[in-house]
Amino acid sequence: MKPEKAQNSTENKSKKSFVIRIDESTYKLLEKWAGDEFRSVNGQIEYLLHQKLMESGRKKKE
């Protein structure tokens, strides 16, 4: 039997992959910020985008 992997609600949703090009200094700042908040850079970008979508009223609370 294979061990089951725990899934949270964000893993249950399908995610779209895409390439993002940012300058090295911006990436370094994001990397530091993500580390400070115990997230990956990808997770930090997702978090920031989610926050701005909520603030702008473009996304409703789940």
Automatic annotation (TrEMBL):
GO terms for biological process: regulation of DNA-templated transcription. InterPro entries: Arc_rbn_hlx_hlx, Ribbon_hlx_hlx. It comes from the Bacteria. This is Arc family DNA binding domain-containing protein. It comes from Chryseobacterium glaciei.
